[in-house]
Design a protein that fits this description.
Layout lengths: L1 H18 L2 H4 L5 H4 L10 H6 L1 E12 L6 H17 L5 E8 L2 E6 L5 E6 L3 E6 L6 E7 L6 E7 L3 H26 L3
Antiparallel strand pairs: 1-2, 1-7, 2-3, 3-4, 5-6, 6-7
Helix pairs in contact: 1-6
Organism: Crypturellus undulatus
Protein name: ARH protein
InterPro entries: Adapter_Engulfment-Domain (IPR051133), PH-like_dom_sf (IPR011993), PTB/PI_dom (IPR006020)
């Protein structure tokens, strides 16, 4: 029960951090316009249980000191974008799948699983203010325990925002499912 309570509080804190993300607070991204992101946004609860897929380009990863925060994320994204510009390599195209279980990354060409990130390990996600086509999340590494910020380039600003909002919805659904199983409903 103690681990369950800690996991639930971590999930709540992560959900609050995602919902406080500056991209979600911008005028024009309120509930009225939400349906304009993906066409099926209004019916997302069912598809989200299975997983919503987005095709993005993986820019890279950097270690961070804090689990959440707008300034921390912006600085990490700047470092990742700067490193990505220096390297003259082709970015890996990935299929990022968001569900209440977490985020799954699959190579778009080979369909090989790159990584599965549990929702409990994700502490923050955002769409960058300046690089508005960049979606990033912070998660604790399963191997080292270090905090890693991973950044992805989307084809459009609205897709980056849709990924961020979908992760926020996944946090809420995971919390709802957790509470339902722990209150006997």
């Amino acid at each position: 029960a103690r681990l369950g309570a800690a996991a639930m509080e971590a999930l709540r804190a992560a959900g609050r951090a995602v919902l406080r993300s500056p991209r979600l607070a911008r005028p024009g991204l309120g509930l009225r316009r939400r349906r304009k992101l993906p066409e099926n946004w209004a019916d997302m609860r069912e598809p989200l249980l299975e997983g919503m897929c987005f095709t993005l380009k993986y820019l890279g990863m950097t270690l961070v000191e804090k689990p959440k925060g707008e300034d921390m994320a912006a600085a990490a994204i700047r470092r990742i974008v700067a490193m990505a510009r220096v390297g003259a390599r082709k970015f890996q195209k990935v299929i990022l799948t968001v569900s209440p279980r977490g985020i799954s990354l699959q190579d778009a060409e080979t369909k090989e699983l790159v990584e599965n990130i549990s929702i409990y390990r994700i502490s923050y996600c955002t769409t960058d203010k300046l690089q508005n086509k960049v979606f990033a999340y912070v998660a604790q590494s399963q191997e080292s325990g270090a905090l890693e910020c991973h950044a992805f380039l989307s084809p459009k600003k609205k897709i980056a925002q849709a990924v961020t909002l979908t992760v926020a919805q996944a946090f809420q659904m995971a919390l709802d499912l957790w509470e339902a199983t722990h209150t006997g409903r």
